[in-house]
Design a protein that fits this description.
The protein is mainly beta. It contains 1 helix and 3 strands, in the order βββα. It binds FE2/S2 (inorganic) cluster.
Length: 74
């Protein structure tokens, strides 16, 4: 059976979800231990457990698309 490819999915107003085998490397070139096969990577910058998402993006109102100025909040 062919292994499934690793996927990285960008969620609107949220993290990047990595599904599958991946080696994450920190700023010092060291592998970051991964406890799960599917992980959420913070892209809002406010998580207290970086590089993982801790859900704080919801509290801060992080948006992945720029506000178009029309006031149509999501
Ligand atoms: S994307 Fe979820 S805390 Fe940053």
């Amino acid at each position: 059976m062919k292994p499934r490819p690793t996927t990285i999915t960008a969620y609107p107003d949220g993290p990047l979800i990595v599904r599958g085998e991946a080696v994450l490397i920190d700023e010092h070139g060291q592998p970051i231990p991964q406890r799960r096969r599917t992980v959420a990577l913070c892209r809002c910058g406010v998580s207290a457990i970086k590089p993982w998402c801790d859900g704080t993006h919801k509290v801060t109102g992080f948006r992945t698309a720029p506000d178009d100025g029309h006031g149509d909040e999501r």
